[in-house]
Amino acid sequence: MQLLERQEQLEKLDRCLQEARAGSGKLVLIAGEAGIGKSSLVDQFVSAHKRDAATLWGACDALTTPRALGPIQEIAAQAGVGDGHGPGADESRDWLFRGLLNEFSRPERPCVVVLEDLHWADEATLDFFRFIGRRIQRTSTLFIATYRDDELSLHQVRLAIGELTGQHVLRMRLAPLSAAAVGGLVGKSNFDIARVHQLTGGNPFFVHEVLASPGESVPVTVRDAVLARLLRCSLPTREVAELVSMSPGKTERWLIQSIIGERGAAVDEGLSRGLFAAQGDAVGFRHELARQAVQSTVTLERARALHDQLLQALVEQRAELTRIVHHAAGADNAAAVLNYAPLAGKEAARLGSHREAAAHLSVALRYRTSLPAAKRAELLEQHAGECSLNNQARKAITSASEALALWREVGDIESQSRVLSFLSPEYRVVGDRQQAEESVATAIALLESLPPSAHLAWAYCTRSRLASNSGRYDEAVDFGQRALLLAREFSEPTIESHAQNNIGSAMLIAGDRLGYEILERNLAIALEHQMEECSARAYGNLVFCSTLEHDLVRADRYYREGIAYCEDRGHFSSVAYLHAYGARLALDRGDWTEAARIATGLLQGTELVPLQRVPTLVTLALVRLRRGDPGADELLQEALELALQMGEPERLGRVAAARAEQAWYCGDLDRVAREAATGLGYLSDKRFPGIRGELLAWQSRVHVPASVSDDIQLPFRYFLAGKWRAAADYWESVGTPYERALALAEGSEEALREALAVLDPLGAGPLAAIVRRRLRERGVRAIPRGPNEATRANPAGLTAREIEVLALLAQGSTNAQLARRLHRSTKTIDRHVSAILGKLGVHSRTQAVVAAQALGIFKARSDTAPGSS
What we know:
Layout: H1 7-21, E1 26-31, H2 38-48, E2 54-59, H3 70-79, H4 94-104, E3 111-116, H5 123-133, E4 141-147, H6 155-163, E5 169-173, H7 179-186, H8 193-200, H9 204-211, H10 222-231, H11 235-244, E6 251-252, H12 253-260, H13 264-272, E7 276-278, E8 282-285, H14 288-295, H15 300-316, H16 321-330, H17 334-350, H18 354-365, H19 373-389, H20 393-410, H21 413-429, H22 433-448, H23 454-469, H24 473-489, H25 493-509, H26 515-528, H27 532-548, H28 552-568, H29 572-588, H30 592-605, H31 610-627, H32 632-646, H33 649-665, H34 669-683, H35 689-700, H36 714-720, H37 724-734, H38 737-744, H39 749-762, H40 765-777, H41 789-793, H42 800-810, H43 815-822, H44 826-840, H45 845-855, H46 857-860
Parallel strand pairs: 1-4, 1-5, 2-3, 3-4
Antiparallel strand pairs: 6-8, 7-8
């Protein structure tokens, strides 16, 4: 295929390979719609360097459920790492990741690695993509990943692509061909160039299919063009095409021969006519669009028969379970699906592809009515567990509830209690507190009439967890200790770990810092014994509690460790939870751009449950409130509705404190007092010293307290006692600048000036305005000026010129191009770019554009952006 209008991209790839040879590896992300020429570009680049660099290929396939680590195993086999079949049953996949990293790091052997069609990747493959993307700059490898940016429906894929940034990451988006390029392809043929360009939109694949079609009429769709090409082939070739269309990716020649006999000549004809592409000892369509076009012509009955034949042949050869399940489902073969789909799900889960595990189990559940009740319930429980790990709590509840009904039908009390104990935290995360409480109470009632057991230990543990999250300290510790005793009696380390988590968290929530010792010791044990779910939960509790305690150094450590750990193992429920509190952590330490980026990314790219959504909404609302940006009202209203639904004091208290803060900026003191009192009412007699102190601090701005109790955090005790300097010093010592400024705002003229020195760099307009007003009321005339109106109105404090430069950066302009466009020197532009990166708290131009989009800067200033009218 002739490659046009791709010279710039080829030159960039050449430069990246040169840098990789010098020991500075690169990750290149090539995006574009289907058929735009991503594979053709990579093919031509690789062909040009086949003698001076080793090449390793892996491709994600559009199977019903993707192969867990499939493309990475392909790459490993070519690299000679392991046996190319991935980790054994008793092995961690870490050795595979490390082995490939070592192979990519050999300085004497520069390497080009191609990972195609990332939009179809399984979780484990995405984990490897993250793993290598964070380390590629220390290798001698150019790693190229292609994907369709119009098909990133899975938030995990979007997040994986979006979070890899830095100087070692380059992004390319391939544009359609121009009319001139299409004219070059049409050449001297009779096709109307304008008509071809209009119908194809400049898509290279469609253009070539149109030009290969017989007759003078121009096909109006890709499908029509492909089928026109197919009709020119002989009947045997069309038979091969039908068979090959049943399998995304490739079909081995032996497989073709085993089903429809020797068809070498037919395969060769398909290759010569450009219908097929050779892939070693296998063939596939040149493009997935072509495969889908041919598949659409096969009748349902014929397709089932072909799938069944493929199924039998693959089973006989003991092929990959994922391929077997794909064809079993296509053949509508219930027995085969029920036999192989659970096995494929188990293997996917072992490799960290929990999304694919749930998908395999979903396929099996279509045929569950043919199973006995107990087997049906077991399958539903497995599905519920995988959905829970994937942050699909409602799906988990649906499957678990059906399993519970079946166990009741069977009369299995222990299984009923097990499912009820599973359901309780799932109900909690979706905000159904009543069902959460009833589920665990029922589980305990069922089991306490029986002899003590591990099941009872798990039920006690669940009760402890629910009590801890609700601020019922005594109950959390009591049931946690009961669970511990039974867990040790029945040698259940997982239950013991969860119970320790509950006790340590309850202590910290109540303000007892000895809880850290329990949580950290428990995390170390869970990591040592590879108890993934226990480790993930320990990370989440440590981040939550240390953020609540304003222990930002500890919170940051466990946030970073926890994200890496949970992402590598596909625990996306824990990842979302950690990010929700990571956003709060960024807010507290004054990195508001990062807080907004994390929160916006979660709200836009992830299906959050209320447990994760409430803190995320509150954090983003506080960024907007403190900067004086619009949009906080809607966020806080949604947060309040969800928090009321959950009924948990901590989340209700956080929302009430944010609403009190909002009222204070508006000067509505009655509402400040009302919101604070409402929040304190939510806490009742629960032990939440941090949130209670914050609410009392807001209330004190309206009503001076008669006394100060000891059951609140130290900085708030200082503040309520009128010791604003001690409070400010405390906040400064823990690294929370805005809270320091809030305390200073109650002090002397000197303190007010100190507050301004903190607030202006933060872009904290509303509080800075209050501080300046207080200075004026004291008769101070020489008040430091804040940013001008345009800068204050910008969420990151960017000047009008910096916004203009940023808008041009988003269009891909270089600094030299910016200098010519704006009639400024390159050094001046360099200073503007450096200032933008600093104010946005990022390290690259790409990160700056992403951060600006998250903060709504482009939207807010679209009327002044270059090129607007």
